[in-house]
């Protein structure tokens, strides 16, 4: 496969990433809207049920305390998410067809985005290596960096930063210079994943143990919505990076002069042997 064909493959994978990113953002936003509707309906449902409940006895204080505790639990995210009421339901108490379609679209878009993104990462890193540009991260390691526990908090960011700089013709000394778009993308990824992971741990404790953290439903939904918005933003920023780097490679790589690349390489140490 010649360079032109490789750049064409890179362009196609970049377009796929962009398409899946757009679909992912739209499906994610629709899920947030549906989730907001579900939270609103849940509060209204709780108020209707509490209005039907008989007033507690004024003589036994524990009844009042129990009712207050139950009301707090009903308005917590624990009851809402554990009992599966996070999708709006119709009169038959089954998830609406719009909710199901939106959720399936979100899952399929996420899978397609990840697959196309990894294909693009591999091809982009392979291109700069194959034209002779020296880089710290090869195509295989760049893809694997997303899967290595703990290390994947930093390695994908460094690999993308190097890829961006080298694809734009930066010399090796500036391969790891800061890039605002790359930093913004990775910041959104990390913060979003940290919040999302913390919420998953909280839900796991609620569902799997006797420990229930009764935080208000609106607060948990707001945190989840913020995390999802960050991850959707990260997907959009990643697609923007793929387009920018693809365009840079199409412009820079065909003009690569191997003599210039060799000039970047440090001179080999020389040893002069002086005879006695």
Automatic annotation (TrEMBL):
Keyword ATP-binding: no
Domain of life (superkingdom): Bacteria
Ranges of residues in domain DUF4328: 100-236
Record Pfam families: DUF4328
Protein name per Swiss-Prot or TrEMBL: DUF4328 domain-containing protein
Keywords annotated in UniProt: Membrane, Transmembrane, Transmembrane helix
Entry's transmembrane regions: 97-125, 137-157, 184-205, 217-238
Lineage: Bacteria, Pseudomonadati, Pseudomonadota, Alphaproteobacteria, Sphingomonadales
Organism: Qipengyuania aquimaris
């Amino acid at each position: 496969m010649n360079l032109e064909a490789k750049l064409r493959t890179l362009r196609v994978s970049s377009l796929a990433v962009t398409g899946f990113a757009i679909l992912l953002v739209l499906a994610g936003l629709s899920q947030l809207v549906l989730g907001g509707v579900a939270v609103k309906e849940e509060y209204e449902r709780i108020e209707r049920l509490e209005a039907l409940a008989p007033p507690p006895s004024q003589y036994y204080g524990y009844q009042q305390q129990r009712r207050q505790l139950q009301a707090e639990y009903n308005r917590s995210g624990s009851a809402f998410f554990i009992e599966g009421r996070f999708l709006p339901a119709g009169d038959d108490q089954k998830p609406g067809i719009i909710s199901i379609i939106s959720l399936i679209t979100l899952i399929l878009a996420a899978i397609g985005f990840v697959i196309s993104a990894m294909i693009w990462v591999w091809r982009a890193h392979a291109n700069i290596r194959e034209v002779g540009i020296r880089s710290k991260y090869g195509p295989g390691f760049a893809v694997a960096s997303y899967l290595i526990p703990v290390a994947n908090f930093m390695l994908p960011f460094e690999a993308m930063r190097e890829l961006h700089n080298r694809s734009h013709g930066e010399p090796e000394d500036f391969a790891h210079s800061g890039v605002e778009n790359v930093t913004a993308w990775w910041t959104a990824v990390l913060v979003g994943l940290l919040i999302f992971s913390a919420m998953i741990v909280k839900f796991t404790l609620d569902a799997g143990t006797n420990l229930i953290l009764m935080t208000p439903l609106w607060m948990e939904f707001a945190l989840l919505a913020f995390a999802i918005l960050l991850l959707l933003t990260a997907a959009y920023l990643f697609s923007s990076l793929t387009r920018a780097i693809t365009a840079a490679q199409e412009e820079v790589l065909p003009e690569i002069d191997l003599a210039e690349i060799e000039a970047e390489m440090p001179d080999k140490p020389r040893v002069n042997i002086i005879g006695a």
